[in-house]
Design brief:
Layout: E1 12-17, E2 21-22, H1 24-30, E3 41-54, E4 67-71, E5 78-79, E6 110-120, E7 130-134, E8 140-143, E9 181-184, E10 195-200, E11 204-205, H2 207-213, E12 224-237, E13 243-244, E14 250-254, E15 261-262, E16 285-286, E17 291-301, H3 302-305, E18 311-315, E19 321-324
Antiparallel strand pairs: 1-3, 2-3, 3-6, 4-5, 4-7, 7-8, 9-10, 10-12, 11-12, 12-17, 13-16, 14-15, 14-18, 18-19
């Protein structure tokens, strides 16, 4: 259980932490601009896995509510990603399979990744070196080679077919695919309070059409597909005209299989799907009565693409979403 400030306080996670190892060579190979660690220091990496069991708020990110540390067995010091070489706050730099602090999941969803912390070489492999989740203040959960095995908390039952039917645009009562629905933006910026008539089609695997669109488009990562859906948005009312929705919303997939919140860049490289045929231009401006339409694309796992509970969401701001299913 996290003992912390913020939304994750008293949330329960099943956590698995692997022993730290020297990943200096792997980090340097990952990006040509990564710097060598200081003399006598190694980049220590450890994979972690966190599955959300229960929380007062969903979806939930652990990122604002905890930090990872290495407790040096030889030096008896506490190390975070920036303790060593304070003048260069890049830590290890670009880390392969890096832990993403702010990825969000629903209950049963699992976050994975690798944390990297520079530590003195004498601490690596020392019998007393441990890894800690730092909650707040002096509150820590510590993992080490001589630790006692923990017991995993039972996960809640799957929520069933939450992706069907129509409703008020929540995860348990989504708006229906293919049917126009009025959506009022709950957002920062000019579009806050604006009303749009939104239609979202059922998503499908559009990998082949994306790859055919541009020779420089890369295929999705192994086990993933390019998931596309048609969007139509007609501006009904607004305090500012012309108006663009682009700065005031984001499109997401809520994974039925993974229980993850997926945006265009959660899976794969920084270019998401690449060049998408008839791509939705969220920065196009319209007056009242004008319509923006096109295709949105988000890389998702095959498991999510095939799962009946996978949904589409407009992410307005903070925890405000309008869900379609």
């Amino acid at each position: 259980m996290l003992d912390t400030f913020g939304d994750a306080d008293e949330s329960v996670w099943n956590v698995t932490v692997s022993a730290p190892r020297d990943i200096t060579a792997e980090v340097l190979d990952e990006n040509q601009f990564n710097d060598l660690p200081p003399d006598g220091v190694v980049f220590a990496g450890f994979p972690i896995e966190m599955t959300l069991v229960r929380a007062g708020k969903e979806p939930l990110s652990a990122g604002f509510n905890l930090s990872w540390q290495i407790l040096g067995g030889s030096t008896r010091a506490v190390y975070d990603p920036f303790t060593v070489d304070q003048d260069d706050l890049t830590g290890c730099g670009v880390v392969p399979d890096s832990w993403q602090d702010f990825s969000e999941v629903y209950a049963r969803g699992t976050l994975t990744g690798q944390v990297c912390i520079p530590i003195p070489v004498e601490d690596l492999g020392h019998a007393d070196t441990g890894i800690a989740i730092h909650h707040t203040g002096n509150s820590r959960t510590i993992f080490g080679p001589d630790g006692t095995p923990g017991s995993a908390a039972p996960l809640p039952e799957p929520r069933g077919d939450i992706g069907s039917g129509s409703g008020d645009g929540t995860r348990v009562a989504p708006l229906a695919y293919g049917a126009a629905a009025e959506v009022q933006f709950d957002s920062f910026g000019d579009a806050d309070g604006s009303v749009w008539l939104v239609t979202v089609s059922a998503p499908t695997d559009i990998t082949d059409s994306v790859l055919a669109e541009n020779q420089f488009n890369d295929p999705p990562p192994a086990g993933a597909v390019f998931y596309g859906f048609d969007v139509s948005m007609e501006l009904v009312s607004a305090n500012k005209e012309p108006l663009s929705a682009g700065f005031n919303l984001g499109w997401e997939v809520l994974g039925g299989d993974s229980a993850k919140v997926l945006d265009p860049f959660t899976i794969g490289d920084e270019f998401g799907c690449g060049v998408v045929p008839n791509s939705f231009d969220s920065f196009a401006e319209v007056f009242v009565g004008g319509t923006i339409s096109g295709v949105e694309c988000i890389p998702v796992s095959v498991g999510d693409a095939e799962h009946p509970d996978t949904q589409i969401a407009i992410h307005h701001s903070a925890d405000s979403r309008t869900v379609f299913g």
